[in-house]
Amino acid sequence: MCEKYSAPGPDKSTWNSTAEVANGFHNPPKVIIPDCLSGPYPSHIKFNLLPRAQGKGMGESLITCILESLKNKGSRGVHLDISPDDIRYLNFYTSLGLRR
Questions:
Q1: Which side of the chain, N or C, has fewer Cβ within a 10 Å radius?
Q2: Where is 78: in which H helix or E strand?
């Protein structure tokens, strides 16, 4: 993705949503995953849809495709980070068979 989207300039006040995403490709956050997650669940999912794409089944289709691809490539499990207060997303992932 870094080849497709150049790094945005240093002035964040000029960034649009594409620049925000591109910055994430060029400067991924430094996240330390504890062994209790990375061992049994080695694949990390971070997934967002724009509001205009939500509620149309696209999220379910994309996640299903991602999970199938990871399984076919040998991943034993996935983990993701969701606020325990975010009932909507908890329900979404639970409906797809993921569990806490």
A1: C
A2: strand 78-79
**What is the maximum span of the chain, computed from C-alpha positions, in angstroms?**
42
Question: Under a CB-based contact definition with an 8 Å cutoff, are residues 66 and 75 in contact?
Answer: no
The DSSP 8-state label assigned to residue 14 in this structure reads G
Element (H, E) at 19: helix 17-26
What pLDDT digit, counting tens, does each position of 38-94 carry? 888 889 888 888 888 888 999 999 999 999 999 999 999 998 888 888 898 899 889
Element (H, E) at 44: strand 43-44
Alpha carbons within 13 angstroms on the beta-carbon side of residue 26 total: 15
Place of tokens 């639970």: 94
Rounded to two decimals, what is the model's pTM?
0.64
